[in-house]
Design goal:
Elements: H1 15-23, H2 30-34, H3 50-62, H4 68-77, H5 79-86, H6 96-102, H7 108-121, E1 131-137, E2 150-156, E3 162-168, H8 174-181, E4 191-194, H9 201-209, E5 213-218, H10 223-234, E6 241-249, E7 252-261, H11 265-268, E8 277-287, E9 293-302, H12 311-334, H13 348-365, H14 371-380
Parallel strand pairs: 1-4, 4-5
Antiparallel strand pairs: 1-2, 2-3, 5-9, 6-7, 7-8, 8-9
Helix pairs in contact: 3-4, 3-13, 4-6, 7-13
Length: 395
C-alpha cells in the first residue's frame, strides 16, 4: 500500500513562504490549512491523509453530524460527493474507530494555531467589531481521573468569528493565559469586553498598550474598585448620564438601565490608568407567566471616553459580550451536543471544540445566524458546502 508524506507545519515554513501564504490566505482552503498540521501516525500503510480526515469531519459537522460515528456514516453515504471534492482516491470512508484513535493524539497547539492563523488572516469582521473574551467548560469531557477542560475563547461580537481558543490548565489561570495570547490578536482599534474574572490592572493596561480599548465588569474580586464605584452611584448628588433598553421575548421582559459617569475617573487613575468612564448597570427580568422578578446590579469600567461610548453604546457593548453565551456556547451545547460527546481522551475534546468553532464561523461567514437550520439545509443538500472552500479543489 502506498504511503503519504508528512504535511508541513506553519512553524516549519521559511518566513518568506509563510508571509506569502498569509497574504493569499483568502484563497487557502480548509483542507490546505489542515495539511499544515503534523500527523502523529506512522507513514507506512496510511489509507487517509490527515487533511482529508479533518476536512471530512468539518464537512459532516456542517451537514448536521455531531459524533464521530455519525461522521463515518456520512462519509459512507456521500462517497460521490467526496470524490467530487477530493478527486479519485482508493479509500473514502474512514470509520469511527479511526477518529477515536487519531483525535486524542493530535498536537492541539498545532490545530488551534493553524485555525487561529487562518481565521485572523481571512477575518470578515470589520475593524470596529468588538471582541468578547469568555470561558466555557466542556463538562461532558470530565472523568473520574481528569477534570473537564476549561476553554478560553476570543470571539467577535457581531460576525461571531472565533479568533482563538486556549485551554486553561489546572496549574495555570485564565488571567495569565489571556494576557499571554493577547498580542496574537487584532487588538488595535477594537474594544475588548470581559467578565469580572479578567478585571485586573495588567490586562487592562496591556489592551491599551496594543492600541485597543476595554469594557470590564467589576465584582467582588476587585473589592476596593467595586466599593468606590458603588459608593459614588449611591450618592444622591452624583452626576451621570443614563439610558435604558427593554426586551420582550420568550415570555419574559428584560429591562436594562445604565448610569454612566466620568466624574470618578481622575480619582481612579492612580490605580487604573486609562479609565475614562464607570457605569452602573441594573438588569430587571420579569417572567410574564409567574410574575416573578429578579434584579441584578453590575458595575463596569472602560477606557472609552464619552465621545466614544454614550450610555446607549455602553449597553450595546455589554449585551454584545453576553451574546457569546447564546450564539456560541449555547449552540455548541444544544445544536452540536458538545457536552454529550463520549470522546474524552487526550486532546480530543478541545480539538472537537475547535472544529465546532470553525463550523460556526463558516456558517456566520456565509450570511446565516441560524446555525441549526443551516445545518439541516446542508444535510439535505451537502453539495452546497462545496462552495465553502473545504477541499483542495476550492483553492
Amino acid at each position: 500500500m502506498g504511503c503519504i508524506s508528512l504535511p508541513f507545519s506553519w512553524l516549519e515554513l521559511p518566513s518568506s513562504q509563510r508571509e506569502r501564504l498569509f497574504k493569499e490566505a483568502a484563497l487557502v482552503s480548509v483542507y490546505e490549512i489542515f495539511a499544515t498540521i503534523p500527523d502523529p501516525r506512522r507513514r507506512q500503510g496510511l489509507r487517509y491523509d490527515l487533511a482529508y480526515l479533518l476536512t471530512c469531519l468539518v464537512a459532516a459537522m456542517l451537514c448536521g453530524r455531531n459524533s464521530t460515528l455519525a461522521v463515518a456514516e456520512w462519509c459512507r453515504d456521500e462517497q460521490e460527493l467526496l470524490k467530487q471534492l477530493f478527486g479519485p482516491r482508493k479509500y473514502y470512508c474512514p470509520d469511527d474507530s479511526l477518529y477515536r484513535k487519531l483525535l486524542p493524539r493530535l498536537d492541539v497547539s498545532q490545530v488551534e494555531g493553524a485555525l487561529a492563523d487562518w481565521i485572523r488572516m481571512t477575518l470578515i469582521a470589520p475593524s470596529d467589531d468588538p471582541i468578547a473574551l469568555d470561558g466555557k467548560t466542556v463538562r461532558g469531557a470530565g472523568t473520574q481521573d481528569q477534570k473537564a477542560p476549561h476553554l478560553l475563547s476570543f470571539c467577535t461580537h457581531h460576525r461571531q468569528e472565533t479568533l482563538l481558543q486556549i485551554r486553561v490548565g489546572e496549574k495555570t489561570n485564565a488571567i495569565l493565559i489571556a494576557l499571554t495570547f493577547l498580542p496574537a490578536l487584532p487588538v488595535a482599534g477594537r474594544v475588548f469586553t470581559a467578565d469580572a474574572l479578567h478585571t485586573h490592572v495588567p490586562f487592562f493596561q496591556a489592551i491599551q498598550a496594543l492600541g485597543g480599548d476595554a469594557v470590564f465588569t467589576v465584582k467582588e474580586n476587585q473589592p476596593t474598585l467595586q466599593e468606590q464605584v458603588a459608593r459614588y452611584f449611591a450618592d444622591p448628588l452624583a452626576s451621570f448620564e443614563e439610558d435604558e433598553t427593554i426586551d420582550l421575548q420568550r415570555g419574559r421582559k428584560e429591562v436594562r438601565s445604565i448610569k454612566v459617569t466620568s466624574a470618578l475617573c481622575d480619582y481612579l487613575q492612580q490605580d487604573w490608568p486609562g479609565v475614562a468612564q464607570v457605569a452602573q448597570l441594573t438588569r430587571t427580568v420579569t417572567i410574564k407567566k409567574t410574575g416573578q422578578t429578579s434584579t441584578e446590579l453590575v458595575y463596569l469600567i472602560t477606557t472609552l471616553s464619552r465621545e466614544q461610548a454614550s450610555p446607549q453604546r455602553f449597553l450595546e457593548l455589554v449585551r454584545g459580550h453576553w451574546g457569546i453565551e447564546n450564539r456560541s456556547h449555547y449552540v455548541r451545547d444544544v445544536t452540536f451536543l458538545e457536552d454529550r460527546s463520549r470522546l474524552r481522551t487526550g486532546n480530543a475534546p478541545q480539538i472537537l471544540a475547535a472544529l465546532r468553532n470553525l463550523v460556526i464561523t463558516l456558517i456566520h461567514r456565509h450570511g446565516s445566524s441560524q446555525i441549526a437550520s443551516t445545518r439541516r439545509s446542508l444535510s439535505c443538500h451537502p453539495d452546497r458546502a462545496l462552495t465553502w472552500r473545504l477541499g483542495p479543489q476550492a483553492a
